[in-house]
Amino acid sequence: MRNLNLYLLTTLGALAGHLPVRLISLVLAAGLGWTLAQPGLDRLQLLAQQRYGQPATETVISWRHMLEESRALPDDEKLKAVNQFFNRRIRFNADQAVWGMPD
To answer: Which phi-psi region, left, alpha or beta, contains residue 94 (left: φ > 0; alpha: ψ -120 to 50)?
Structure first.
């Protein structure tokens, strides 16, 4: 799971609305396992508010809702839900522009 987190963090880019990659890392760290206790997510939400403001807080709230709604799904459906969550929030750019090399 750690390698997946690292891979996602290095390839996701920034969330739409110019939310920083650090927020993505906080969200991924809090949610991909679907096992963190409520206080951990509360802290994540507070940190998002303090560091990045209301847009980041709304992203964490949406993430929490997605986690709750997906809790009982099979793993492949959870992965689809996570993928869909981020795909809706990430601005696409070609590999050449992001990495300086073609795909």
So the answer is: beta
Is residue 101 a part of any domain in this protein?
A: no
Same-domain pairing of 25 and 46: no
In sequence order, which ranges of the chain are alpha helices (DSSP H)?
2-11, 21-31, 38-52, 54-70, 75-87, 95-99
15 occurs within a structural domain: yes
Domain membership of residue 66 as a residue range: 41-91
Burial of 82 (0-12, 13-18, 19+ CB in 10 A): buried
| Residue 68 belongs to some domain of the structure | yes
Per-residue pLDDT of the chain (103 residues; tens, 9 = 90+): 444 444 444 443 344 444 555 556 555 555 555 444 467 888 889 999 999 999 999 999 999 999 899 989 999 999 999 999 988 888 888 888 888 888 7
Q: How far apart are CA 17 and CA 2, in angstroms?
A: 27
